[in-house]
TrEMBL record:
<keyword id="KW-1133">Transmembrane helix</keyword>
<feature type="transmembrane region" description="Helical">
    <location>
        <begin position="188"/>
        <end position="208"/>
    </location>
</feature>
<keyword id="KW-0472">Membrane</keyword>
<feature type="transmembrane region" description="Helical">
    <location>
        <begin position="38"/>
        <end position="58"/>
    </location>
</feature>
<feature type="transmembrane region" description="Helical">
    <location>
        <begin position="156"/>
        <end position="176"/>
    </location>
</feature>
<feature type="domain" description="EamA">
    <location>
        <begin position="157"/>
        <end position="297"/>
    </location>
</feature>
<keyword id="KW-0812">Transmembrane</keyword>
<feature type="transmembrane region" description="Helical">
    <location>
        <begin position="98"/>
        <end position="120"/>
    </location>
</feature>
<protein>
    <recommendedName>
        <fullName>EamA domain-containing protein</fullName>
    </recommendedName>
</protein>
<feature type="transmembrane region" description="Helical">
    <location>
        <begin position="257"/>
        <end position="275"/>
    </location>
</feature>
<dbReference type="GO" id="GO:0016020">
    <property type="term" value="C:membrane"/>
</dbReference>
<feature type="transmembrane region" description="Helical">
    <location>
        <begin position="281"/>
        <end position="299"/>
    </location>
</feature>
<dbReference type="InterPro" id="IPR000620">
    <property type="entry name" value="EamA_dom"/>
</dbReference>
<dbReference type="InterPro" id="IPR037185">
    <property type="entry name" value="EmrE-like"/>
</dbReference>
<feature type="transmembrane region" description="Helical">
    <location>
        <begin position="132"/>
        <end position="150"/>
    </location>
</feature>
<comment type="similarity">
    <text>Belongs to the EamA transporter family.</text>
</comment>
<dbReference type="InterPro" id="IPR050638">
    <property type="entry name" value="AA-Vitamin_Transporters"/>
</dbReference>
Amino acid sequence: MNPNRLRAYFYLILVAAIWGAAGPIIKFTLEGLDPLPFLSYRFAIASALSLVFFAVKLKKGKKFRRLKANFSLAFVYGLLAVPIALGILFIGLDKTTVLDLTLIGVAGPLLVTAGGVHFFHDRITKRERIGILVVLAGVVLNSFFPIFKAGSSLKLTGNLLLLVFLAADASSILIAKKAVQKGIKSSNLTSLAFIIGAVTIIPLTLIVHGPNNLIFTLANLPLKYHLGVWYMALLSGSLAYYLYVRGQRSIEVSEAVLFNYLQPFFMIPLAVFWLGEKLSGSFFVGAIIIATGLVIVEYKKLSKK
């Protein structure tokens, strides 16, 4: 196998493990910290590292010519990937469960696949189209199931926000692929994205919560929640985003997003055994429908192997 492709696979498997654990860690940390302060704290850490990164590069004489020439593209990526997508994810997950995120999140790679067909001329067969429709049916069923349960309007709102998150996240992945094709280094792209996140979210948090209240909250935050924020900032943030963009260099967009399907193998056990979430009948129904659709989508690839 091509060494570059093998390296890309390793990066993307590692990202799947990091992001698979991220959902439960976000949910756990939100028990002690509201979404906006959580995001501000996380982006403050990540953006500080990003500023150090750019300062060191500038000192070494780096000109960032490709980043400057395509700054508007990089800016749109950063805005979508960090403050918009992550902001919606945190707010949505605060209102619903990690298990719902597990099923709803399956639609993300399919949205990217559809975008890859349109923007990068990736090929998709009739069988794959059918499979995608089946998966989306399962995702929609799971998302709107709270309508049929009394007192679940909050969870429905959270599920709908997760769908919006997927749309924003899929768009950012496609833009990242375009940016990498134009020669922007993944490290530059992700570093700029977290600076954009800090510049947009921290002022909003100060307005909503007030400076004194925010400082008091963070100063009195238990260590276990601090660790959750640092995990999201360093591992799920800077490292995972860098590896994800780097992993896309050697393989197609539609192939790279397939590694997202590995995330539930890390996410579901943590949700059940750590957070104590319950596997409901609707979860199993949605999972069966979605799994059927994924088998249809990937049948041809699997048969070739």
